[in-house]
Amino acid sequence: MITAAGGVVFREGINGSLEICLIHRPRYDDWTLPKGKVEVGETLAQAALREVEEETGIKAEIVQDQTQVVKYPLETDLEKEVHYFLMKSLVQNFTKNEESDECLWVDVNLVESKLTFSRDFGVITGFDLLLGEY
To answer: Are 102 and 24 in contact (CB under 8 A)?
Structure first.
């Protein structure tokens, strides 16, 4: 089992709606939520904040202790378990890097059509973001 952590990062958009941060990973040519492996000695929350900043340039704060957990098989016969935290964007300074070449803010009501994996949309809806509670 590979354990990873990431974030559903949101901000208030220009029209007042919520926007979700997605990244494009050129290695897989997909649009997804920022995430990565937990390093030795890190908590899930520490790993999630680090990975979000590494992949997006966003400094964020976790706004909910509860996580959404997704498990899926990898091509290597291992399973990956990702713990997602709900995060509010504080500062963004995206720089293209090895893992992600684009960072895109998408209106929460349109995000499903942009995501490559339906499991990512399940994570977003698990936090009730479509209800605009944040």
So the answer is: yes
Residue 22: count of CB within 10 angstroms of its CB: 23
Where along the chain do its domains lie? Answer: 2-131
Which residues have CB under 8 Å from 128's CB, separation 6+?
none
Tokens of 45: 């929350």
Alpha helices in the chain (DSSP H): 44-56, 111-114, 118-126
Q: Is the pTM of this model over 0.85?
A: yes
Q: Using one digit for the tens of pLDDT, what is the confidence trace for 17-27?
A: 899 999 999 99
Q: What CATH homologous superfamily does 2-131 map to? A: Nucleoside Triphosphate Pyrophosphohydrolase (3.90.79.10)
Each residue's pLDDT tens digit, 91-127: 888 888 888 999 999 999 999 999 999 999 999 998 8
Residues 115, 99: contact at Cβ < 8 Å? no
